[in-house]
Amino acid sequence: MKNIQFTSLSIAVFAASISTGVAADSVKTTQAEIVMKASFKDRGQAKVDRLNQDETQRLCSQYPDNRPKEIAKRIEAINLKLMKYPADGKLLGDWKEGEKIAQSGVGKQFSDDPAQPAGGNCYACHQLTKEEISFGNIGPSLYNYGKLRGNTDAIQKYTFGKIYNAEAYSACSNMPRFGHNGILTEAQIKNVTALLLDPDSPVNK
Amino acid sequence: MPYFKRTALAITLVAASLTGALFAATSSAQGNSGDATIKEIEKYRQALGDGNPAELWEARGEVIWKKPRGPRNVSFELCDIGLGPGKVKGAYAVLPKYFADTDKVEDLESRLVTCMVMLQGFKYEDAMKSPFGSPERKSDIEALVAFVTAESRGLKMNVIGNHPKEKEAFDIGKAMFFHRGGPHDFGCVTCHGADKQRIRLQDLPNLTNKQQAQRAYTSWPAYRVSQGEVRSFQWRLFDCFRQQRFPELEFTSQGSIALTTYLAKNANGGVLSAPSIKR
Question: I need a surface site. Which of A152, B77, B118, B279 has the fewest CB within 10 A?
Fold first, then answer.
């Protein structure tokens, strides 16, 4: 019953946008957004407002591939501006804690307990250590990351920044913006940065 | 946290049966040695394929289908799920489609609800009560879905999609597929937009590729070994949205039907093998 109402609403909006001369593509997006909002309900920590997109998400949805260079640059610039480095200047934490965070896939799903800290689930997408054989491949292998890159200040800064906000370095990356979007805390990001860069970490063995 | 437990169980299941083979394949590798892994997972899938408990759901669904039910005491045998009243064989292959009586595009699940309300006289709330079953409370909808889809096994997907509302649904579904959002910036396309991607050890079909889209769509609904239940396509979408960190996709909502329309039409020509069996 609800569905029928929303169909006519979306048609009304559709018509309205045509008459004001909005480009066909954005009309479709608007209509789809209205339908989407009517098709989900709040559950646990996952509220319907999660469907609202920031500019990065909107542009990446609009240009899933063949993205114009200017758009990619704009996305990276927006995100670079929002980067926050730790006030104490220290970028490396404890790699052992980092390994636990990399293993944990808990967090932000409506089936997760919001009182528990979220994990980074890095292994879902990356190879990190030789010991963990259950790893995904959406991202590149990070095995020996620190050994290959070195542990310089510049690499530390890049690595912390990449985990904090992946979009600052590659527009529309499939990697979540762990710091920017509040998935991981600053302390947690320091720990995974150490997992990648600490010479004692199994990543670099 | 039932979902987390199930995922963990499933991973253990796969991991246990694969560890030996995988260890040899991956321990020497520096990069991503995807191929050996995929082959092993495929073997495991085939092993699961002999004997499918989904038959129990199919049989239960057939009984429900033929039994007079609801305040009006009518059976589903008068229900039009796509090819006319009472026609089951081949119907799943043409869904979702536009239905004049509701003036809506509907998928199988939504059509079952429609018939329960319009034909059998159930209250809408009651018809919507248990879309997904659990060991404590079996779902009639999932049993009916198993029965109806089994009747289309071996047939080719053939969604026409020429009606303006069908076209509209397809376009909305497509936009939903590429819509990235939520705390993880995920969209369907994040996990299903490229070939040979894996999350941990689970392979992810590239749903923008015709063959893979056909293979994925035509194997649902499926009996999930890790859950001991037959799961409908609506459940598949519901659970992927959970992993996408989105809120709950409402059962039979316009958006869920739109996304199904997009995926079903892209699977046209694929041969239905559902209900299949999955890890």
Answer: A152
CATH number of A186's domain? 1.10.760.10
Distance CA A148, CA A197 (A): 10
Which residues have a Cβ under 8 Å from the Cβ of B100 and sit 6 or more positions away?
A: none
CA pair distance B241, A172, nearest whole angstrom: 19
Question: How many CB atoms are closer than 10 A to CB B186?
Answer: 21
Cβ–Cβ below 8 Å for B124 and A40:
no
Q: Is B240 a catalytic residue?
A: yes
Structural domain of A109: 44-205
What average pLDDT does the segment A140-147 reach? 98
B-contacting residues in A 38-77 (Cβ below 8 Å): 38-43, 46-48, 50-53, 56-57, 60-61, 64
Residue B156's pLDDT band, with cuts at 50, 70 and 90, is very high
Q: How far apart are CA B106 and CA B114, in angstroms?
A: 9
CB neighbourhood size of B210 (10 A):
14
The answer to whether residue B31 scores a pLDDT higher than 50 is no
Nearest to B257 by CA among A29, A28, A4: A4
Whether residues A147 and A170 fall in one domain: yes
Q: Quick one: A122 and A68 in the same domain?
A: yes
**Residues A48 and A35 grouped into a single domain:** no
Tell me, yes or no, whether A18 and A49 share the same domain. no
For strand B222-224 and strand B202-204, is the pairing parallel, antiparallel, or unpaired? unpaired
B248 sits in which H/E element: strand B248-249
CA distance A178 to A106: 13
Contacts B256 to A, Cβ<8 Å: 39
Entry pTM:
0.87
Half-sphere exposure of B178 (CA within 13 A, CB side): 19
Average pLDDT score over residue span B205-222? 97
pLDDT per position as a tens digit, B161-191: 999 999 999 999 999 999 999 999 999 999 9
CA distance B4 to A175: 22
Token digits for A64?
Answer: 């899933």
User: CB-based contacts of B140: which residues, under 8 Å, 6+ apart?
Assistant: B64, B130
CATH architecture label of B52-278: Orthogonal Bundle (1.10)
Judge if A93 and A35 occupy the same domain. no
Contact A4, B101 (CB under 8 A): no
